[in-house]
Design brief:
Length: 679
């Protein structure tokens, strides 16, 4: 299909230019045929503001908005370009921190309700994790019931949000050297809410105007998220719903069923999605669906909710963020049940072309024109059943469907607890084998690829390009969020299915341990698992005494959310080199305004000098790959590790056994241990 012209004369991308996913391409073609808009077509029509996109616009008071686009120009109040950029950035960090941390607060209140028998349908699933976390927090666990421990832990976690002084407790899990650095810099979060409120106060007109000082508090605010609210959310989710362990799942729009009631859960709150899963398995609800003429209920997820139910229940993922509209375009979805974050307002008008019901459930989120069924933990199972009945009653209104025949199997569920177990078993669980593999050079380093998908970037392309190339270079990849779903659709998250595209050293490790080359670690809030893994690697020894010494990089190739900016900031402050793909919100105009790059330079060179980590924005996946490998190799050299050499590996494991098949037992043993063979 040739490029299409929009009404504004701007060129539209073809489906193949908009996405690399065949299922998405098929549905975008249908959208074009029917004249239905999607986020992809709207992005083509809506030109990004080249002033706001680079942080050169201030709208924080009624004297503006002020556009600072010339060298030496200031806002009406005299605010310089670097002050405006820093203020805009910290406000995004505050919003992102608030979103993820508010999720953590809700989880803590749910834990409290479960401990007191006030949450219908919920129970404590992982008592071992409850006891471990409680002990880390200084809570007595001996001779106490799980409910007693959970009640006290919930109170402690709830206190972390409103605490006014001191240090939030989860932040003290970081490596000792890192905690000391944060204390010296004065960025240990005092309380989650306090840091977010102060970020907004500092950026009110007439307040903080020193860019470095503003960004200093951006670090503190983000740490309140990563080592506070988000970490609490992950802890409580594991305690209530079970700590993830590998299981088999599927991903992409092909998981939808023609003969079943299709219900998609979309958003970020596992309290809702886990209860909808439970309700969908209730015999009464199944019979209700069959009475409506369906073979049963087919539940699937979109976005981070997809990851939550995928890694714990094996419920398939219909897709990542940019596939929420495409799922409705199939005509097969009876209800899309949403809660918070990443919900497109366009869903309601799109659904009017089909029979799909958009059902909002959170007291914090309503969409004009959607059906609202408010979710409450005290009546959780009852409400979940009512939601499913609403979907089942809509099955009779279904018309023609077009479900793409594309889906891939994957193995999700690699929590940091399971990674520790899989490397040593029940009695020798340890990160020692991982550290040893990096020290020997079998694994060159580690890359965490996380974050959103963005319609201004070819859907899934940056995620998959970077992942595929790093695997060839023996870099172990861990992923969360929409990035994980992107690579699941490419087949990298399934056992040895992708090992023919993996470097020889990493291939040996994957074969030996029995893991895929890309480890699915959960939803975006579960980036805290990656922080924990890095901390455990440091504690294990051999890779330095702080996170900034580990040969590791963090990447968000297709970011679009304010949450991503918070994540990037707390990872940089934790010592990681972080690269973001696409738009740079503090880019300025370096060609015409030299001072407009001061903030970007400070977040790179300045943060690296202070924290050992840095944040950069790059719009070229191959440059991100080059810098990733360069950074990993520099960290290896600084640790005195051998220079990466892929030629010395690949002669062990399954591949080596196949090569020496047919040799005598004596010669086979000699070959395995690198000794000469007689034949």
């Amino acid at each position: 299909m040739a490029d299409q012209e929009t009404t504004r004369g701007r060129k539209r991308r073809t489906p193949e230019q908009a996405s690399i996913d065949p299922a998405a391409i098929q549905m975008l073609g249908i959208a074009d045929e029917r004249g239905i808009g999607t986020a992809f077509s709207r992005a083509d029509v809506m030109a990004a503001c080249n002033i706001g996109a680079t942080g050169l616009c201030c709208s924080l008071c009624g004297m503006g908005p002020c556009r600072v686009i010339k060298d030496g120009q200031t806002g009406v109040c005299g605010a310089t370009v670097d002050t405006i950029q820093a203020r805009n950035f910290i406000r995004s960090v505050a919003a992102g921190s608030a979103a993820h941390s508010d999720h953590g607060r809700d989880m803590a209140f749910t834990l409290k309700a479960v401990a007191n028998g006030e949450a219908e349908g919920y129970a404590i699933k992982d008592i071992a994790k409850l006891r471990t976390v409680a002990e880390q927090c200084g809570i007595a666990i001996e001779d106490r019931s799980p409910e007693e421990i959970a009640d006290e832990l919930a109170d402690l976690y709830i206190d972390q949000f409103g605490q006014q002084n001191g240090a939030i407790i989860p932040a003290l899990r970081a490596p000792e050297k890192r905690v000391k650095l944060w204390e010296e810099q004065g960025v240990i979060p005092r309380g989650v809410d306090r840091e977010v409120v102060e970020a907004l106060h500092r950026t009110h007109m007439g307040d903080d105007q020193d860019p470095g000082h503003i960004l200093h508090h951006a670090v503190r605010t983000s740490l309140a998220d990563g080592w506070g609210g988000s970490m609490i959310a992950t802890d409580v989710s594991d305690i209530l719903f079970g700590t993830p362990a590998p299981l088999l799942g599927e991903a992409n729009l092909g998981v939808l069923k023609d003969d079943m009631v299709n219900v998609i859960v979309h958003g970020h709150e596992p309290t809702l999605s886990q209860m909808v899963v439970a309700a969908s398995q209730d015999p009464e609800i199944i019979e209700y669906a069959k009475a409506a003429g369906a073979a049963g209920i087919n539940l699937s997820g979109i976005c981070c909710t997809a990851n939550e139910i995928l890694m714990r229940q094996g419920i398939p993922a219909a897709g990542n963020f940019l596939q929420q509209e495409l799922a409705i375009l199939t005509g097969s979805v009876e209800a899309m049940v949403v809660d918070v974050q990443c919900i497109m307002q366009a869903l309601v008008s799109l659904a009017e072309n089909f029979h799909t019901k958009i059902i909002t459930t959170s007291p914090k989120v309503k969409l004009k024109g959607a059906t609202h069924i408010e979710f409450e933990e005290t009546h959780a199972l009852t409400i979940a059943k009512n939601i499913l009945r609403e979907a089942i009653d809509n099955y009779a209104n279904r018309e023609d469907t077009t479900i793409p025949d594309y889906k891939n199997s994957l193995i999700p569920g690699f929590s940091h607890e399971y990674i520790n177990y899989m490397l040593g078993g029940s009695y020798r669980a340890s990160f020692r084998p991982l550290n040893d593999a990096i020290m020997a050079g079998r694994i060159r380093g580690v890359a965490a690829i996380v974050g959103c998908t963005n319609p201004r970037i070819q859907h899934d392309s940056y995620h998959t390009t970077i992942t595929e190339e790093l695997l060839k270079q023996d870099v172990l990849v861990v992923e969360t969020g929409c990035a994980a779903i992107a690579n699941a659709k490419l087949g990298f998250l399934l056992g040895d299915a992708g090992l023919d595209r993996v470097g020889p050293g990493l291939q040996e490790v994957c074969e030996t341990v029995g893991i895929p080359p890309v480890l699915h670690m959960g939803s975006c809030v579960d980036n805290t698992r990656i922080l924990t893994v890095l901390t455990q690697m440091v504690d294990e020894g051999g890779l330095g005494d702080d996170i900034d010494q580990v040969p590791a990089v963090g990447l968000a190739p297709e970011w679009m959310s304010e949450k991503a900016l918070s994540i990037a900031t707390y990872c940089a402050a934790s010592g990681a080199y972080v690269m973001m793909g696409g738009a740079n919100p503090v880019e300025g105009r370096p060609d015409k305004m030299p001072d407009s790059v001061e903030v970007a330079d400070y977040m790179s060179a300045g943060w690296e000098e202070i924290y050992g980590g840095k944040l950069e924005f790059l719009d070229d996946p191959w440059e991100m790959i080059r810098r990733t490998l360069d950074h990993i190799d520099k960290k290896r050299a600084a640790l005195g590790l051998p220079e990466y050499d892929p030629t010395i590996f690949g002669k062990s494991g399954d591949a080596r056994l196949i090569e020496i098949e047919g040799l005598s037992l004596e010669d086979r043993q000699a070959a395995i241990y690198g000794q000469p063979v007689a034949t």
